[in-house]
C-alpha cells in the first residue's frame, strides 16, 4: 500500500498531500536535497539513472511538471513492490496539471484549493491499484493467490451500478447523501447499531451490505455475495486479519461522516479532512493485513456505495497511460514537411530567435546543445560530465518559453551557467581553520589529521607543503608525516620542504613544523597511526598538552585502476582515521579525471563498509596546476560531477603561498567564455 | 508589391487625409507609449521584503502564513517564490502613523514577500537578488531557534548571516550614488519559539553575535581569497572591505552594522503553534509595518 502521496512546488510548498501512514517529512526533504538539488541520484547496474530513491525504509518515486514547477512524489515502504505507482504518477500528473495548470501559472500563487482533487485521487488509486501490494518476503510462502486486477472487475460492475456517471462533484456534495442514507439505516435497523467508531467495527459491515442493496439491487447483491465469499473462503487463520480489513473500512467511513459534519464551515473543511486522515493512518499503522482480503472488501464497499469512479475519468486515465507509453516512439516521425514549409518555419524560427518568446522544442535544442557540449569538451570537461550537464539543461528548458529578446543560445548559456554554479557550489562551505581550532581546543583536544591522496605526479607533496605553510601562518604546530615509504627520494623531498618551511616560520616567528618519518619500506598506515599517537600523547609539554595541532600525512601516489595499491588505502583510512582526506587532481588531466575521482572516493570506507563523510568518501579536491591550463578548467567540473565532492583548494603557482580557495563565479566565467 | 504601391503613393502624397492620419499617429503614439510604460511601472512598485536564512528555518512556512493566514506544510525549497500579502489590521504601517485608529476608510498596504531557498548550493539565488538595486524594503533572516542550540546549526546560521551582512555592507560602501547607500533594515526572525528545545531570543542574539565574530576572524585569517589565478594584486585593499563591521574590532555587535545603514532587530515568534493554537507572528508584522 502507498504510504503517502504529495504534490509540491519547486519552491517547497505542499499543494496537496494524502498520507496513509505517518511518513517523516525528512524523507521527502532528503529526496529534494539529494536528487533535485545535488543531482546525486543512485545508479543501477547498467549505469542508467534510476527514477526511484530509497531513504530509510521508504522508496520514493517521483515525476515532475517542469513548466509548472510541480513535483509529484509517491512514498511507499521498500519491502513492497508497487509496479502501478509509475502509472499513478503519470495519471496524477496529467490530471493535476489539467485541473490546476492555469492557476499555477499565475504569479504569486502560494495556495490552491485542491480539495476537489481528493476525489479524483481516490478514484485513481482505486482504478490503478492492481493489488500487487504483497510483501515480497511473504510472496513465496503464500503461493500464487494473486487477486485478479480489480480495475477491470470493478469498473465493469460500476458501469452497471451507476446508471449515469455523476459529474465531477466536490467531495462534500457527494458524501452528504451517503451519510444520511446510512443514518437512516441506523435508525431503522434491527441490529441496533451504535455509532460506528473505529473500535466497533462489526456492525459497519452489514451496514454497507444493506447500503449496497439499496443503491443497486441486482449487482450489489452479487457484490455482497462476493464479499461474503471472500470472507468465508478465507482461511481460518486469517480471521483476525479480515476483521482488521473491515476495521480499516470503518475508519474510512468514520472519516466520511466527520467530513460531512464539518462541511458547514467552508474554511475548516480542509483542516478537518487532514485530521481525519491522520485517524485512519493510526488505524492502518497497527494493521498487518493480508492484502487480498483488504482489497476484496474495499472493492465491495466502494462500488456498493455507488462510488464515483467516473466513466470519463476512467477513459481519460487509460488515454493518458497509453499516450505516455507511446510517447517514447514517435519522436523522429516529423521533420520533412516539404521544402516550403520548412523554409517558412525556419524563417519564423529565426525571427523568434531574435525577438524571443519562442517555445523550445527538442529539435530547437539539439543543435545549440551540441555546440554547448563541444564547447565544454574544449574546456577539458570530461565527455560524461558534459553530456549530463547538457541533458540537465535540456530537461530544464524543454517546452519553456524564451524571454523577450533573448536567443536560444543565450538562454542555453544562462541555464548552463546556472547548472555549473549549482554543481560547483559546495553544500556546506569548508572553513579549515575553524575546524582545526574547534578540534584542538578543550574539552577533548586531539590533533587534527589531514591526509592527501592522489595519482602519481599530480603534486601531492607540493600541495601538502602549501597547506602546511598556510597552517603555519595561522600559528599552528604542524607535523608532516612521510607516508610515501615507496618511491625513492620521497622522504628526502619532504625533508627539504620541511627545512624550508621551518626556516620561513622561524623568520616570520609563526608556528612550528617537524617531519615524522620511519624510512622506506614500512607500512604507510602504521606510520600514519604512529605519527598521530606521537603528536597526541607527548604530554607534559606546554599548552594543551599536545605536541602538534595538525598532522599532515603524505601518501604514495598510486594508479587509480590498480586494485592492489588502491585497497591499501582502505586500511590507511581506517587506521589513521583522518579528519579530512583531500585528493589532489591535476587540472591538466582530461577524461580520466572522472575515473580517478570515483576510484579514490570509493576506497574510503569505514569498518562497517560505509563510505565516510556521509557516503561520499573524501572531503574535498585540491586541483593543482591550475596556472598551466588557462581557461580550460573543466577538470573541476568533471571531478565534482563524478563524486559530488567539492573542490576546496586550487594550486595556482610554484610558491608556498600559491594556494587559493575556489571562486565559483570565476570558474563558471572561465568555462562559459 | 502591387497591392501596397497605391497605399504608399497615398501615404507620401500631399493630401489632407494623409496629413491628418500622420498627425493623429504622431500625436497619439507618445501618449500610448507613456500610458503603457506608466502602467507597467506602477504595477511592480509593491514594497518587497526578502526572506532569507538556512534550510529548515521556516521561510516558506512563514511565506504561506503571511500570504494565506495559515501555514502550509512545506519541504525543502528549490526555487524562489514570491507572494503578495496584506498587512493585518493589528500592525500599523509607518505611513499610517498619524492616521486615526478608528479610520477604516484606508486599506492596509500590500507588500511583496520573496522567499529564497536556504540549501547551501542554492544560496546564490538569494545573494543575487540582494545585489541589484531592487526596491527592497527589508530583509527577514529566519533563524531556527532550536537548531542554534547545537554547534553545527549555530555555525551554519552564523556563516550565512555573516555572508548576507557582508554583501549588504559591500553594497553600501561600494555604491557611488546616494540611492544605493540608503541602507536596509534587517529583521532576525527567531522562529520556532514554541519548541521545547528552543533558546530565548536574547540568548540567540548573543550567540549569533559571538559566532559571527568567530566566523569573521577565521575568514579574515583564512585569506585563501577567492581565486583569480594570478590576478590578486588588490590583496591588501580587500582586507578591510571583507571585514564585517568595524575593522579590527574584537567583538561583533549587530549595532555595529548601523554604520553601514543596516539596522538589525531581533524578534522572536513562531510560525506554527501547538495543535489548534495559531502562530505568534505579531512582532514580525509590527516590524514590517514600521519599515513599509
Automatic annotation (TrEMBL), chain A:
Heterodimer of an alpha and a beta chain. One of its GO terms (biological process) is intracellular protein transport. The keyword Transmembrane helix does not apply. Residues 646-659 form the SRP54-type proteins GTP-binding domain. It holds the Pfam family SRP54_N. Keywords: Endoplasmic reticulum, GTP-binding, Membrane, Nucleotide-binding, Receptor. It is a peripheral membrane protein. It is found in: Endoplasmic reticulum membrane. One of its GO terms (molecular function) is GTP binding. GO terms for cellular component: signal recognition particle receptor complex. CDD domains: SR_alpha_SRX. Residues 131-256 are annotated as: Disordered. Residues 149-158 have a biased composition (Low complexity). Belongs to the GTP-binding SRP family. Residues 186-207, 229-245 have a biased composition (Polar residues). Its main location: endoplasmic reticulum. Residues 246-256 have a biased composition (Basic residues). This is Signal recognition particle receptor subunit alpha homolog.
